[in-house]
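G.,

No rush on this.
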Amino acid sequence: LRTARALGELPVLSAALRDGVLSFSAVRELTRVATPATEGAWRADATIDRARCDAQHVGSLEGDGPARAAQAIPPAIDRFVRLRDGGRCQTPGCRSARALELHHIVHRSDDGSHDPSNLTLRCFSCHQAHHEGRLTIRGTAPDQVVTERREQHALAVPRPVADPGHADARTEARDALVTLGFKPSIAKAAIDEAAGHVAHDATTEAWIHAALRRCPRPCT
């Protein structure tokens, strides 16, 4: 319901879903952060490429009833890789257990397969960093995967920050989470965990985007 309501104000993403350009999983993730003014930018190739890695396709939403959902990665393989990788992000120095996604080492756009040897478990931030070109992942899973950071500061544990703008963005993001209904303790914990995954000059929107991935999902 949240996604459906959001799409009512996001015509670009609605059209992409209707036309089959984006999967439902990709659109669902984009509606968490996109606005009518920014949805075009969020539909950039890097975001779409990441979302396609671990997607569910539900077909058009305009029919009389829901179409049969199809998982891009077979559920049995999904479960196997998550268990094999210990339920943790496989990026050295990260090891996050939240917001985990399966990444195709050889991208689907390059004819990469769903074989477990081509899949590695990554958190949202590391996965996005790879598709933005800030992190390289190559090799064969699980024992011959090489991960290299192109921008060390983007994924490193942050040092104390003197820039007041950075502190303001962090505080504004925490306050925004509280406004969305999260308890202050949960909002603070999510922001603290996101701190190791955002750039030193990240905007408030980037902080919110990273922190939401670390908040518990609401019960449905």
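When you get to it, here's the other one too:
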Amino acid sequence: MTERRCRAKKRIVNNELNCTASASADIEKNWLGSCVPLPPAREQYPVFRGIRGIRVVKNKQTTLASFRRRLHDGMSIMVGGFMGVGTPMELIAAVLDAGVKNLTLIAGDTGFPDRGAGPLIVHRRVRKVIASHIGGNPETGRQMAAGELEVEFSPQGTLVERIRSGGAGLGGVLTPTGLGTAVEEGKKCVRVDGRDYLLELPLRADLALLGACRGDKAGNLQYRLLARNLNPVMALAADTVFAEVDALVDVGRIDPDLVMTPAALVDGVVLKNFERE
């Protein structure tokens, strides 16, 4: 009996060692060089199959040419990121290449002349901007002062909640931010339990452009650090969503616990071209 227990214990220890070695082998360097553990092989994550064994995972990897066909004049576009971090620059360049104009831009800021959403302003493709601040783009201020560009400022927290309420199908958000300031002009004031609030209306867009550090071919996205600021909430508030990813992997190679935007919200994924940048 003692010998049998010893053999069983030895098998358990060997299995644990093998699992540890396998997990260590599944460590890869992510785009900034820090270690990110990969999940086990994708076969261990069940993928729903049709009644005749057909995989029902759609490959959403697309091309910039296919993306450009979705664009048209006068559309509203949400652009993720903050001061250029987490902004999909290749998708921005594709919008410029398509020649569309009279756009409504919804973003945290207008970036810089050559980064973030800034090139859209510099090339005069935008009719109206809804943002929390100009950013480091002097061209936005110049066009605004000259009456060439309509700009609607919204405090950043309020801007995020307006986008979130648009994605959730709500009628708006009540906030005390901006009471007694220029932000209050033209807005309805609502009194709740003896306190005044501004009614901020929801925001939605025809198209959202997101920037992620990693995505899979089904459209699941993972963001890193500051890039998580506006990208996830914008994915909920647009009719069509395209993402530009630094790394594109097979379905199942992103740990489900690390997915920040699920594939159901994403219509197309474009792999970033680092050589072009």
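Residues 16-46 have pLDDT under 50 and may be disordered. The radius of gyration is 23 Å.

Enjoy the weekend,
O.
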